[in-house]
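hi! just following up on the protien thing from before. the input was this:
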Amino acid sequence: MKAKVSILLILFFLVTGLSYAKERQGIVTFKININTQNDTKRARLWLPYPLSDEHQRIEDVKIDGNFTNSAIYR
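and the predicted 3d structure came back as:
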């Protein structure tokens, strides 16, 4: 009986450990509307986002909108 319980516990820990090792992907979208006065000539927006590190890889960062200038800085 103890051998069966031990085997089941070992299998449980192996399976739960492997489930965390799977790669996960996703898309994060920010939709931002800036309401300004009619006489506003310039608006600035700073939006922080995570950087790549040993635990995650951030790639294909894109900016779309009705603006004249945009930039992505690290």
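The CA atoms of residues 9 and 28 lie 37 Å apart.
The chain has a mean pLDDT of 79.
cheers
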